[in-house]
User: Fold this.
Amino acid sequence: MSIMARWSEERVIGAAPDESSIAAARKLARPGPWSDTGSNDVLVWGKCQGSGKTPYQVSVDLATPAYRCSCPSRKFPCKHALALLLLWARGEAADVGAETADFAQEWADQRGDRAAARERRQSEQQTDPVAQAKRLADRLTLMDAGISDFTRWLTDLVRTGLAAARNQPYGWWDGVAARLVDAQLPGLAEQVRAMGSDVHARADWADHLLFHAGRWWALTKAWGRRDDLTPNEFADLRVAVGWAMASADVQGTEVLPGPWLVLGAHRSDDGRLQQQRTWIRGPDGTVAVVLDFAAQGEALTTPQLAGAELDVTVARYPGSAPQRAMFTSPVTPRGLVHSLGEGCSIAQALELESAAVALSPWRERHPVLFGGVRVSPGDHGWIRDGSGDALPIVDAPLDSLLALTGGHPVDLFGELEDGRVRPLSVVVGEAVVTP
Amino acid sequence: MTWLAELRTSALLGTGRHAPPSPPVDLGFRPPDGLSREESLLDQAALADVITRAARRSSRLDTADLPDPSPPDDAPEASGEAARLLDLLLTQPPVSLELRAQLVTDWLQLAETSRRRVPHRLVAALLALADTKPGVAEHLHPAIGTRGLWLQVLTRPKDSVLSSSANVTEWAELGSADAAVELEGLRRSDPAAARNLLGKQWDDLSARERAALLGTFAVNIQTDDEDLLERALDDKAKSVREVAASLLDRLPASARAARMAARLRPLLRIKGVLRKQFEIDVPPEPDAAALRDGIAPNPRSGEPDRLGRLDTIIRGAPLDVWTTVAGRGPAATLALLDGETRVVNAILATAALRADLDWVRALFDVRKDVRLLNCLPDGERELSLVRHIRGGGVNPFALVPLLRDMPRPWGPALAEEILTLITAKNGGQLATMLAAFLPMALPLDSADRCRRLLERSDDDAPRRRVLRDVVQYQSFRQSLTEAFR
Assistant:
């Protein structure tokens, strides 16, 4: 087992579920209330004297990371775990050497047992081909039924007209989405649910709904002919309908060595689910995206710093490029780069998008590294390149981008989505920074 | 109508009412036979979706409205610990929001002293904070640097033009509210220039503007203003005359003050043998000159307010009329006014307005009024308050306004007294009332005492909170000072 690098304070802050937790943790991050602290390669532990008689027992598994504390807090990780990590990050407590505390060891053992049991269960499932085939057939029947139901809904939608659909209450859209979830098509359900609010939120709602109805229609057609699709095309379709691929299936595939450069990352939270997208680029120029999810109130994995080079190996999910990827080894930051490399013009970026749509019509988001673009104000902001082309910015702190770039030409990495750019990192003064 | 527009219409109305267009032949799109209307529309929608996305073009914006890039910064960026602390304050403040604003202001001032500037990545968050906290906005420059100024001009053009060197033609074109702000600024930096500026425009202004703009002369009022004020006493608008009279009240050496003295003197007499007392007559009916000086005329119906006229005369006359008639100093003179509450109030207001220290001191002995305290020089001001508190029998809540305006940080004696009051049995409520400024007001040395007080067991949660704020503020402030060393 490799030795986990000591976390930086920023990384600890990144693990906090909200600001108030980190504020509370800061107050606890002094040696006073702590006793029996220690750490080894994978664990950090300690006892924290709270208001009660018995001190809280805190353990952190650095590899996953996973947290445990005997306090009743529903925050996760709680302030005690964060405070302990802060102390450890600063080197003020929990130094290596002490013998692992009983409670920490016990927890680690339990976790180990559970993980082993889970693996056993999974391998048993996999080793029973008959049961496995039946599960797959059941699922496909359910999905087929869901798709034909959705097909009928689409024809009804265009028969009665989009204007009539816009007058429907949100519950109408939500009902359709719920049926799709029941049919194990959560990806489609998510899009329909979003449309329920988009038809009121967007000025261009009519085109938005028309084009999406067309896209959904094409998707139902593709589903019916899924046996004719190439493996990559089918994988893209699976992502679009929300049929997740088990990470165990990916782990067995080809592993690409590092170092991987973090181009930028984005976190979103739709109230039900938090998502984190981390765009990375390998030594051969392969771009991939690592997705992390967490339920409300749970902690997402610590974000990777844009511009960091990571010593890590990566396996890719099937699908067309840029593929989804997962880290298959512990992540060790190597250092920060001074540049993200050569960027493209806005016209080139749009050509790339056009090619990507031709390859996979379901994908809505394309990573782009722009070279020498200027950020300028107006609406939500614009980026412009030397040839006078411009693209609107979406969903980014414009003032912060302006302050960082000063209106000078910079290299900018972002996601091209629906003809708009979501900037995720910019290169300023020999450093990659996040707006 | 283009194919896309027809498709849109059909989709909006529904294929039940409007047939879909035929697919565009020139795109080489050949639909299968026997499609229903709905299938045909959905097929074409899928086509339109892919075409739109694959054929997206960039917008062409006029380069003329592209702002000039920011000029380079000349001051070095605050780095290391100083930058980290500002980042912490802006993004994850470990203190209450009020303390945060104060600490950010402290940071900006320390940066200014050590000629450092805000790192570019923090400029936007800082401007956003300044939008809601005027205290922070006031101290943005110069620490915010060239980049910060550039961004402010770009995104908040209104806030950033605060030039005190108002130029006559431009100033004359401002709206009256803006003009008053500008003039007040100028008045602060260059009173004579403000006077000349207003004097030149005087005849072109409306009565309301004349009154509002003349009002700004309360800042840095001086003898040279008298000519303009005398002229304003003859103004045809009552509001302007009133402003002029109230401003002349502040100039005891003016001609109007001499005229008021001549009206006051005959009204005052000392009587009594054992227990001497002032006897004060009410003023006679005002003549034309008295009316011009701002003494109220007879109302259309009912009795005239004679005591109000007396107040006007007292406020306008020099205070030494009283000492001359009494033949003794201010304190002894006040003793002769025992029971004359209204007259003492008028004298108090006059003394405070003119910051007449002899009178202020004498009056503060009998009246603990915040206006008086604010007139005293800093050191003496604090001493007077400490003496007052030590005198005992003080209503702690009456102290709050007095303490709020006290120069900060307080001296050790005052800090000591207030902490004693707060930690007394019922001091929790006082602590809460002082919470907004106590952390900033206590000197660095008292943090230790607060820390000790905090460690003491105390069930009064609000009091603990205030003390904790003090300790937090002081220790953060200490870190800031060290970070800039």
The two ends of chain A are 36 Å apart (CA to CA). Residues 45 and 321 of chain A are 42 Å apart (CA to CA). Residues 252-336 of chain A form one domain. Chain A touches chain B through 57 residues (CB under 8 Å).
